[in-house]
Every structure is written in structure tokens, then in C-alpha cells.
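Predicting holo structure, adenosine-5'-triphosphate bound.
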Amino acid sequence: MRNIFSFLKPYKLFIAVAYTMTFIELMVELLLPFFLGKMINNGVMNKDLENIVMWGSIMIGLAFTGFVAGIINSFFASHTSFSFAYDIREKLFHKIQSFSFANLNQYPTSGLVTLFTNDVRQIQNTIFMALRIMTKAPLIVIGGVVMAFIVNPRLAIIFLITVPLLVAFILWVLKVASKMFDKVQKNVDNVNRVMQENLAGMRLIKAFLRRNHEENRFISANSNLANTTRRTFRFIETSMPILLFVMNLSLIFILWYGNSLAVAGETSVGDVVAIVNYALRVSMAISMFTFIIMGFSRAKASAERLDEVMQVEVDLVDHASARDKAAVREGKIEFDRVSFSYPNHDEKVLDEVSFTVDGGEELAIIGATGSGKTSLFQLIPRLYNTTDGDIYIDEEPITSYTLEQLRRSIGYVPQTPLLFSGSIIDNIAWGKENASKEEVVQAAKDAQIHDTIMELPEQYETRIGQKGVNLSGGQKQRLSIARALIRRPKILMLDDSTSALDLATESRLLDAIHQDDCTTLIITQKISTAISADRILLMDYGEVLAVGTHEELLDESGLYRRIVESQFGEEYSNAN
Ligand SMILES: Nc1ncnc2c1ncn2[C@@H]1O[C@H](COP(=O)(O)OP(=O)(O)OP(=O)(O)O)[C@@H](O)[C@H]1O
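Done. C-alpha cells:
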């Protein structure tokens, strides 16, 4: 909590002004009934018009001062709460950008989105309320009781019974409600998650005719949310009339007892009116305070969630020995008995993997699904750290490069191409800061996508929807390859990124890549692609079974022969 609210520090002055205005409003609220009593006692009861005008003018002046103070307070309260929300969203975004893959695995995307929207808004609203009325409400309760005692202690005695009773009741309501709000929040997260998965997987849902199934899943999440919200608000709604009932009882008591004292000449009508007025203000402040505290308990839960993410230790940072000047020169890669398990998982997905790729060499990696190919790739740009063993680039441990230097020299095309909303040119140029149009066009030509782009309505300026919905799978793959090529990386890594390309296009693309002097690692399922590489690495169950040329592997590895036969037919391997 404290960490999150420390974001208010830059706005200390605004907060001070807001609280000063609150104090003025408070004074106005407490003095008005007092002066009303005076006006009735000295003016109305004595039919003294001059006195009425005098007290009336003072009251109007006070009310106007309160009104102006309220407007100024509102301005500073909203400015502070909006600025706070802006700052915290910016800091949160920055923090999440610094997350490693292992950190990201800890938090579902939907939860992170909820942080940015729901949680930040919840705290923002509470800060606004806090500056606007939160401190005023309890002070009105205390001040109202004190003033009532100043006006008439005998009548004010009722406050000593009702106020503690109401406060105790409200504390109980809050305790129960905050647990209920926790459940509401969990259900909000759940609805967000289902929605997000559905929007991202809409095509798959339609293709698999799973619309009804998904609708039912959403209905279930949505009705859970509606039910918990309904239960929570019903509870609060039923507690409010109880509150009002106790308040009204105390008012009736004041009127009845005040009347009998007035008839006996022991108090004045003005005092009774003033005390009734204080009772009304105290009751309103108490019920207002309930809502504020309820908002506060929700904001507390939101602040805790935000704080948890803000405090996450990023587990992948530059090594103490990393040198910013170290730059990848040739792109020679060496794995030395590298083992790897995903964080918080015991299973080894890579087991003592050793191999070397020379600078400028092309290595194809093949293996069954789940054999650890992508995991191996992710270790090279240090998206994860190895569990055991070392990786060297140009004979230096990868930890001796800063993350920035290391990743700057790598062009990584992931298995699922992800394009951003924007134009084609933006998407390719995204791969390199300040890329020129010529560089974009050259990268597109190398990735064999230039001709396709030129056929689009606005060519390079054509906009693509989020995730490039209006492009085919193969086109998306080639755009994300162009994005990697524009970096002119020393190490190029393609994770099954040519799977949707026909053989001729793929071979032209690989030829273009060969023109560049870069080390290329290609994960592929296609033997035809693997054959064109200098060497092939065969993986199975996280181990390297064999490394060599196509012919060497045909001789050495039964598994490789079987894969070749499954794609080219038995005659092929017999002939070779
Ligand atoms: N984020 C993760 N957390 C835990 N385990 C994971 C994670 N990602 C992958 N794995 C596991 O690691 C193993 C290797 O997965 P990997 O994606 O490296 O295989 P792959 O050979 O690239 O498969 P494919 O050809 O299907 O892409 C699998 O058993 C998988 O379940």
C-alpha cells in the first residue's frame, strides 16, 4: 500500500491545497447549524427582522465560501488523482517491459490488463474521494457531536448512544463486504480472461465450431460475476435501511425530548433545530463514510495487486561481468553441456546439450514436437538463463555481453508471427530503430514479400489490423522475417518460420539470407529445408542425437532416416 501511495509525493502541494479547502468546507458545515440556531432564537422567536437579516447574511456568506472551497478542492483532487493514475500506469508499463519470460509466466495477461484498467481506476477514484470527502466525513461526525454538546449537552447525549452504535455496525458491514468484494474482483479477472482468450482465438473457435462451448464458458464466468456482485450489493443495500432506521429513531428522540424541554422552558427552539441539523449532518457523514471505506477496501486490494507486480524482482538482468562494449563479431555459437528446466518446473527440457555453429554457418534443427527446439532457441538471446552449462558466442560466455548488446545482434523470428496494428512499413521498420525506407524495401525483398506488398492497395502504407488479420499465414511469416532481416543481425534464428511457404519461395528466401554474412539457425519440420543447411542438428527428448550433414545423418541416425522416409518415401533413403 505504502509503495503505491508514495506515487502521490510529487503532488504534495496539490494535496495540501485540497485539504485546506476541505477544512474550510468542514468549518462551514459545522458553523451553519450553530448560526441557524442563533437566528431562530434571537431573530425568529423575537420577530427581530434586523437580527434575522444579519444572521441570514452571515450564513449566505459562509455557504458561498463553502461552495467556492468545494470547487477548488474538486479541481485539485481530480488533478491529483488523474496525475497519480497516469504516473502509475507509466511506471507499471515500464516494469512489465523489463520482465523476463519467467516473470511473465507468473502473471496471466488478463490479470495484467486488469491492473492497468480496473485496479488503477479503483485507486484513482479512492484518492479523489479521499481528497474530496474522506477526511471531512469523520471530522463532521466528531465536530458535529462536539458542537451539539456546546449547543445543548442534555439533548446531545443521544449522540453518545447512536454514534458508537452506528460506527460498530458499519465496521461489521465493511468487514463482511470487503470479503465479498474480493470475490467480485476474482470474478472480474475471470471474465476478462475468458473474453481475451475468445477474442484472440476467434478464428480457431469458428473453425472448430466451438462457439456454443465458448458461449457457455462466458455465460458461466459472467453469471458468477453477476451473482457475486448482486449478493454484495444486496448486502450493502439491506444494511443501509438499518442505518437509516437508527438515525431516524435518534431524530425522533431529539424532537420529542427537545419538545418536552422547550415546553418546560429548559431549552430554546433554536437549540433543538440546531441539534436536529447536527444529527442529520452526522448521519449523512456516517453513511457517506461507509461508501468511502468500502471503496478504500477495494482500492487496498487493488494497491496490493499493483504493488506485487511493481515489486517483482526481474530475474534476468545484465551479469556483473557484462561489458557494454562487447559486441558479437562473427556469430559463432557454442553450447557446452547446457541443461534447462523452466522456472518452477522440475522437468529437464534440455539435457546436457553440446554443439558448435561456426560464424556464417547455417544449422537446421529438427526433432519431434516438444523435443526442446524452441527452448534451446530462447536461451541464445537469454530470454531464459540456462540451468546448467554455458553458452558461448564468439568464444565469450553470453553473460559477458549486456542483454542489449546480445539481443541487438540477434534477429529472432518466433514460431507464431505477431504483427502490430499499423502499416506494413511500420511493422518491418519496428525491427530497427530509425530504419530508412530503402532498408525496409531491401528487407522485404530478401524476405520475398516485396512483390506481395506492391500489390496491396496502399503498398507499404497499407494498414494491417491487430495481429495482421487481413494477411495470410505465409505473408505474416515473411513480414516477421523481414522485420528480423532489417536488423542485419549477426545471428538469425527462424523458429519454424517458413512452414507456410511453398518450396520455391522458401528456397529464394534462404538464398537471400545466405547472401548476408550471418549465422543462421532454422528450426524446421521439413527435410527439404534442412537439406539446404550446412549441417543438421537432430533433437529428441531434450537431447542432441546427432549433428552433421544430411548424408552423415542418413548414415548415422535411424531416427533421421525414418523422418526422411516419412517425408520422401523409403526409396529415397535406400537410394542414398
Ligand atoms: N513456458 C513453459 N513452461 C514450462 N514448460 C514449458 C514451457 N514452454 C515449453 N515447455 C515444455 O518444454 C518442452 C519443450 O518445448 P519446446 O517448445 O521447446 O519444444 P519444441 O521442440 O519447440 O516443440 P514444437 O516443435 O512443438 O514447437 C515441452 O515439454 C513443453 O511442454
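DSSP finds 21 helices and twelve strands in the chain.
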